[in-house]
Design brief:
84% of the residues lie in helices and 0% in strands. It is mostly helical and 61 residues long.
């Protein structure tokens, strides 16, 4: 497989977006926990939201 500059740029963009979203999620997950939502379920919801992202990544590769 030949790697081009465009493919490298896309990869870096996806990493930056992912890190940003994880930071926002980490900051916001505290709000439901303060209101009685079990912390473990917060991680379950996060794990379920990763499934569509993983499917898209597999399709694109």
């Amino acid at each position: 497989m030949k790697y081009t500059r465009q493919r490298t740029t896309n990869w870096i963009s996806f990493v930056i977006i992912h890190v940003t979203f994880m930071g926002v999620w980490g900051a916001l997950i505290e709000i439901p926990e303060r209101n009685g939502f079990p912390p473990t379920l917060g991680y379950v919801v996060w794990a379920l939201t990763m499934i569509p992202a993983a499917v898209i990544a597999l399709i694109n590769n």
